[in-house]
Design goal:
Layout (H helix, E strand, L loop, with lengths): L1 H6 L3 H7 L6 E12 L2 E12 L6 E13 L2 E13 L13 H16 L2 E15 L2 E12 L7 E10 L2
Antiparallel strand pairs: 1-2, 2-3, 3-4, 4-5, 5-6, 6-7
């Protein structure tokens, strides 16, 4: 695709798609409160690419948990949003069938990087001992941009520390 854009006379589009020597800026803010039997954690992050057409990414989550002796019950809500810079406005359409196909394929590629999803998680963690924990979580993911990516996950884990 990169060579096709360069051959078509639009090297700036090729440079926008190619991830080479590009910079992105990451910003994040979060907090964690662990007080008595309560746990509250939240975070917001953003990634802004500067010299390419890759998506700007924003993510957020908020978790709340309550401890009952050696068991922690928790719930989390979060979302992810990736918005692609699908700016092919400087490329004229109708010039040739090949260029129109290239525009369509590039637009499809860029839109495939877009995400607009939210998730809900319910879980429990049982501290079996000082070095062993058993965890179970159920997560429901809803993708508002592409419902074929909606999913649910039930996971179990045994965590050990040495």
């Amino acid at each position: 695709m990169l060579d096709a854009w360069r051959t078509a006379g639009y090297p700036e589009v090729a440079s926008g798609i190619e991830l080479k020597d590009d910079e992105s800026y990451f910003t994040g803010i979060g907090f964690a409160i662990d007080y008595d039997d309560y746990l509250v954690i939240s975070e917001f992050t953003t990634v802004n690419p500067t010299d390419n057409l890759m998506p700007t990414q924003e993510s957020f989550y908020f978790s709340f948990g309550k401890r009952f002796s050696s068991v922690l019950i928790h719930a989390t809500y979060g979302w992810d949003e990736n918005v692609a810079d699908n700016n092919l406005a400087n490329v004229p359409t109708g010039v040739s069938a090949e260029l129109d196909t290239l525009i369509g394929n590039t637009a499809m590629f860029l839109s495939s990087t877009e995400v607009d999803s939210k998730f809900y998680t319910l879980g429990a963690r049982w501290e079996v001992s000082d070095s062993v924990a058993f965890k179970v979580e159920y997560t429901d993911l809803i993708d508002d941009h592409n419902s074929s990516k909606d999913s649910s996950l039930l996971q179990f884990a045994l965590t050990t520390t040495f």
